[in-house]
Write a structure and sequence with these properties.
The chain has 16 helices and no strands. The chain has one domain. By secondary structure, it is mainly α. The chain is globular.
Amino acid sequence: MISSVFFAALTGTAIAAAAAIGGMLLPLMKKEGYNESFSASLVASAATVGPIIPPSIIFILFGVMANQSISDLFIGGVVPGILMAIGLMIYSYFVGKREGYKSMDSFPPLKDILLGFKDAVLALLMPAIIIGGIVSGLFTATESGVIAVLYAIIISGVVYRELNFKKLYEALISSTKTSVGIIFLIGSAATFIWFVSFNNVPAHIQSMLGIFAENPILLLLVINIVLLIAGTFIDTISAVTIFTPIFLPLIMATNIDPIHFGVIMAVNLSIGMITPPLGVCLFVVSSISKVHIKKIIKSVTPQLIILLVILIIITYVPWLITYPVSLFK
């Protein structure tokens, strides 16, 4: 879980987090005797933190479309991201106790920790480069991904000397295989988006939700339900593009903070990535772990409930988002 939190600072998508963390940790967890379906579900649910801990592609897109401060959205996503991580860590702790999963016999000595930090410091600089570059305006979110890849290749190949052309080729092949399944799902989602647009569904949704405009509690509840369902069938970028123009006027009319709403939208769509029947992250970890998707869905259910509880908390306790933002004003 902690690995996913750190990796969330390197990427703005749940899919990338699931693929990267899953590729590294799932074989190791299997070797250590962890239940395969639990391991796969944990990697998938932990990946939902990816779009919430900054930087986040969802926040950037929403900020541009809603004319809101992207840096405020980044700050607003920190507490929800930490709450999601803590909730999943507590659940993992009790599962580990129940199943008797082993942990380290003793805490590493300070000397070993310092030596490990010395070796890892260049890699740990990557989040600072990405977030600093985006916030300062040196490069866009898309460009930051390219810069991160180039930085990783240079550091791992020149400094650490662990990457050669053979390993780079293997990494490209592996990422291609994972990406094929993801692209197929996104392509299917594009067909669904065309159907939605052709039948003028967004206008109908906005008309139906107008009756809740005077009750922010009911409005947020209905929006949460719509976004959770949409996040299951539609990729996050398309969902933000479709639903931001629909919901934003209603949010502004109800005097709900748009930064608060932007974070709610991001958390909703992230949770949708592990919600059956078409949670994309579930298929990603299934392809990596070779565990059938039905087993992963059964195992991910308790984690999904935890994330939904956290979603409710941040929905109806807005100061968890707005107060940190106010500290940086």
